[in-house]
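Board notes, transcribed. Complex of a protein with nicotinamide-adenine-dinucleotide.
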Amino acid sequence: MQEVLSALGISDVNAGGFSGSWSGSGRPQAVVSPINGDRLASVTNVTAQEFEAALAKCHQAFATWKLVPAPRRGEVVKELGDELRRNKEALAELVTLEMGKTLRESLGEVQEMIDICDLAVGLSRQLYGLTMPSERRMHRLQEQWHPLGVVGVITAFNFPVAVWSWNTAIALVCGDTVLWKPSSKTPLTAIACTRIAEKALRKFGHDPAICSLVIGRGSDIGDLINTDPRVALVSYTGSVPGGRHVGRLVQERFGKHILELGGNGAVIVSEKGDLEIALQSVYFGATGTSGQRCTSTRRVIVQESILGTFRERLLDLYRKTPIGDPRDGENLMGPLVDTAAVETMLAAIGTVKAQGGRILIGGEKLPQPGGCYITPCIAEVSGNLPIVQEETFAPVLYIMGYRTIEEAIELQNGVSQGLSSAIITNDQRESELFLSAAGSDCGIANVNTGTSGAEIGGAFGGEKETGGGRESGSDAWKAYMRRQTNAINFSGKVELAQGINLEM
Ligand code: NAD
C-alpha cells in the first residue's frame, strides 16, 4: 500500500488544494479504506480564502491558456494520457484502496481516462465551426467556437478519476481551465491525478494552475463554485437532489451547467432474446462496482413466459458471487464505499418489504473488517413501487414480469430518471421499437448489451431527472466552448438582412 501511495506522491498528511502550489489549512481528515477500515492518509480541506486564491489563479491562467493554439493544447493532453499510461497500475490500485471497486474495474477506469485523452488529442484539430450561405451579396456567414473559461468540475465518489478526466481532457483542448472539487470520500485519487496533470503541464512550460484542485465540503466549497460568476461552466456529477441545488444556483447567475445525475437502469429481457447474454448483462450490471454505478442495472423486466427460468438462473449466479477484498482477482464484488452505504441498502430492503416486495436473496451484512461488505440483493416486485422509483446506490435489483413489449417499455420509462436502458432480444421489430421515439426515453438505449459500460466515443448522459447533460465523445465538446456567429461583409457597401432599406 505504501508503495502505491508514494509512487503517486501521496504523503501521510496532504494539502487538499492546488493552483500552481499546494494549500489547505483545514483540519486533517483521515481517509479510510472501505476494504478493511485501515487509514490510508489524511487530507486537509481548503478554507474559503484558499478557495478564493485558487479560483483567482485558475481564472488568471485562462487568460493565457485560451490563446495557445488548440493543437498545442492537444500536445499537453497527449502527455497527460502518456503519464496516465505510465501510472495506470498505481492509480488503479489507489482507486481500489480508496473507493473499494475491484482492481480489474479500476484498471478499466484508468483505461477510460487514457482513451478520453486520445479522443481529445484528435479533437484538438477538429473543433469545427460551420459556414452558411448569407442572404446578402458578397457576405459570408460562419460560426466559430471559442474557449469558455474556468470549468468547475464537481465529481461523485464512484468514478473518482474517470469523470474528472472526461471533463478535463475535453476542457483543456477547448482552451478552458479546470477547477476540480472531488468527492470528500475520494480525495487521494484526486490529489494523485492533479500531480499527474501538473507534471504534463510543466513539461510544456504551461501554468499548472490550469488544472486546479479544491478539496472541501460540498455545502461550502461546492456552493462557492456554484455561485461564482468566474466559473463559466459547472459540470456536476452526483445525486438528483444535489444536481437540483447546483442547477438552481448556477442558473440564477446565468452560468452554464452540465448535470450528470442519478439513474435507474432497466434491462428488458424478451423471450426472443439470448438467455445467456441476458443473464450475464443483468448480473454484471447489477453487481458490478457493488451496484454503485449511475448506469447500474436496478430493474430487470422479464417476459412472463421465461420469468421463472430467468429468475432461477440469476439466483444461481447470485448464490455463487465471490465477495471480498477487491484486490483479489477472484472476487467479483468488493465492499460498498462506507458503512453508511450499507445502512442505506438495509433500510431500502426494509422499505421494499413494507411496500409488498419479496426479497429473493441477499442483503446480509458480511463480517469482514471495516463493515462495508454485504451480499447483493434481488427483490421481486410487481411494477415500479415507490421504492423502485428511487435510486438506492447499492446492489439491489428489482425483478418484475411483463406480457407485451409495449408494457415492458412503459415499465422501463415509468421512473423519473432517464439514464441507461437495454433490451435483450433477437427480434428486430422489438429492438427497433425500443430504439424508436415510442421506445426508451433514456440517454442510453442498448440492444443485446447491458446498461453499464459506456464507451467514451459516444456522448454520455441522460434525460429527465438525470439532468440532460452530455459528456465525453460525439459533439459533447460544444458544451465546453462558446459559440460565436460572424457575418463578414466584403461587398464595399452596407446591406441589411431581411431586405431592410436604410437609404437616406
Ligand atoms: P453526491 O450527490 O453525494 O455528491 C456528488 C458531489 O457533489 C460530491 O463532490 C459532493 O461533495 C458534491 N456536493 C455536495 N453538496 C454540494 C453543493 N451544495 N454544491 C456543489 N457540490 C456539492 O453523490 P455521490 O454519492 O458522490 O455519487 C453518487 C451519485 O452520483 C448517484 O446518484 C449516481 O447516480 C450519480 N452519478 C451520476 C453519474 C452520471 O454520469 N450521470 C456518474 C456517476 C455518479
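The two ends are 81 Å apart (CA to CA). The chain has a mean pLDDT of 97.
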